[in-house]
Amino acid sequence: MGAIEIKELHIKINVDNDQKNTDVPKGGKPLVNKDTIVAECVEQIMEIISKQSER
After folding, report:
1. What are the Cα distances from residue 16, in Å, to 1, 19, 33, 39, 41?
2. Greatest CA separation for the chain
3. Which stretches of the chain drop beneath a pLDDT of 70?
4. Distance between CA 52 and CA 32 in Å, rounded?
5. What's the whole-model pTM score?
6. How far is CA 50 from CA 3, 6, 11, 40, in A?
């Protein structure tokens, strides 16, 4: 079977601020901000790509 090479990766995220967030404590700040979520997603994607390139 041939190898798969990813040359470009585009990630698009739509965040709708009009929805109620149930993870917001009484202080009004969300428990996790968008930057943290995006950083975690990118880290997991890079780990998957790294594992695939080791094969």
Report:
1. 41, 6, 13, 18, 18
2. 54
3. 1, 17-32, 55
4. 29
5. 0.42
6. 13, 11, 17, 15
